[in-house]
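Narrative summary of target 7.
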Amino acid sequence: METTSRTGGTAGADRTAEDPRAVDGYLMAAFPWYGLDEAFTGPRWLLRVGVTADGTVEHGSLGHGDTPTLKSSVPMGDPAPDARRFAVVVTLARRPVRPSPDGSGVLEATTAASAAWLAGAGLLSSTWPLRMARGLRQAWVDQQTAIAWELADALDGPEWSSLTLPVDGAPVPFRYRESEYGWVVAGSARGVHLGAYGRGMSPYGLGFAVVRDITGYGTPGAVRGAAARQG
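Modeled conformation, tokenized:
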């Protein structure tokens, strides 16, 4: 399995939603974006898009619910009342085997396992323990990233279970796993592969749908500000 985050330099080209121009990246995509369906009525926010060296949008993420926060006061795995509840949907374009942007080789086809890797990496970025000694953090991140990669590469293995979720109203099979940090699901839809990750929101009640208007998603900063004003 290979993904743009590990081959085409995409990770370094990601545009974060803190930049007000971030929505432009979503509008440049040649594939539909997926988010939670209309049954979800909470906040929706842009996260980031992944772009290859030649400017092609390969994948992106859309957030739902509370914006994740790393609180040293909340132990990992502890369902504390103040823990954030969120679900992030990752959309990855279906791509065949193709030349790398620099022409030095080829990139493997994207698969549901690729979406699982992106979702697993996203979950890690939202939940890693702040209270860990600074000198150990990178080693922990490297270790957990390698584990997430191996798990994604074995999507049909015993670490995953089957889960059926609606996509545009039709039942679609997904693979699902849960850990102390949260959950990850991965599958495929028309023209794309889908991944999702979250914490505090059960994946069993979720449904996915094509986003009709991406500009209806705000930025994490705006969502946090609105939540603070309402509080």
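The radius of gyration is 17 Å.
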